[in-house]
Design brief:
Layout: H1 11-23, H2 27-40, H3 45-51, H4 59-72
Helix pairs in contact: 1-2, 3-4
Length: 89
């Protein structure tokens, strides 16, 4: 059985994520901020992924959001442009 990773936030980081959850114009940012706040409250990534979001996600996805947040802060939660498909002529 996997050992759950502990995750804690400073008061400043919690306030920043609460602000993002309440006022971010993009729904995906609100969802990711919510996931991080619930993780910091002690829930497992699996529980958050399956029960704590707008729609079920893979636990690996929630863990990736946490890891990117720890590495890059709020900037790590933003989506990056994807490669465009090349259509045949």
């Amino acid at each position: 059985m996997a050992v759950p990773r502990t995750f804690s936030l400073t008061d400043v980081a919690q306030a920043e994520l609460r602000q993002l959850r309440a006022r971010a114009p993009q729904p995906y940012l609100r969802e990711r901020a919510t996931a991080l706040l619930v993780l910091a409250a002690g829930q497992s990534a699996r529980h958050v992924a399956l029960h704590g979001l707008y729609r079920p996600r893979r636990p690996e996805t929630v863990s990736a959001w946490r890891d990117r947040y720890l590495a890059d802060g709020v900037a790590g939660l933003r989506q990056h442009p994807r490669r465009k498909r090349r259509l045949p002529p």
